[in-house]
Design the sequence.
């Protein structure tokens, strides 16, 4: 299937919509339009669910989709963290801790590519961490948009955020171990071929 055919699949169109909503979401947060930002985040969450559902249901799982879906998740995480930090809803350290993990993993891509591998499959711990983080963001926004209920919402939001960070980093260490294993096995294969 060509790249253009892959782009035209229902799941990938939903992922592209999600990507297009990232700057809209960030602008809304930065302008204090929390309720609208929550709505955009809800739409993005629905498209995230639907793209996976339709990919399986319509048998339209593509390599492009495997790249677009996590890319859209990462962009939402980054945009939300940066936006929430700028407006003062979360401390800057939270943004740094989450983004630092992805920056560290970014350096693994050239290493994998040099051995003929693309990005490794997403681990369930990474999915769980991403889910927890993406669940905490609307709750943080709800607490900001509706201060009367923030006493009840903020503890839940922070619980999801902290669990998300822990799982996110745990998945990062698992990914680094997988990269190390790939490097070792490709080095061993090269050594055997050289004999």
Sequence:
């Amino acid at each position: 299937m060509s790249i253009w055919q892959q782009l035209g699949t229902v799941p990938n169109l939903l992922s592209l919509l999600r990507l297009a909503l990232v700057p809209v979401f960030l602008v809304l947060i930065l302008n204090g339009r929390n309720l609208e930002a929550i709505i955009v985040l809800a739409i993005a969450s629905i498209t995230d669910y639907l793209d996976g559902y339709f990919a399986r249901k319509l048998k339209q799982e593509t390599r492009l989709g495997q790249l677009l879906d996590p890319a859209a998740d990462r962009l939402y995480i980054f945009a939300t963290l940066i936006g929430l930090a700028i407006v003062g809803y979360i401390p800057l350290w939270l943004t740094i801790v989450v983004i630092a993990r992805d920056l560290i993993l970014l350096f693994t891509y050239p290493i994998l590519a040099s051995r003929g591998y693309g990005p490794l499959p997403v681990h369930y711990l990474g999915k769980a961490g991403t889910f927890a983080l993406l669940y905490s963001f609307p709750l943080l926004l709800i607490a900001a948009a509706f201060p009367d209920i923030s006493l009840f919402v903020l503890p839940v939001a922070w619980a999801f955020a902290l669990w998300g960070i822990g799982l996110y980093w745990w998945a990062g260490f698992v990914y680094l171990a997988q990269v190390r294993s790939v490097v070792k096995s490709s080095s061993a294969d090269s050594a055997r071929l050289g004999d």
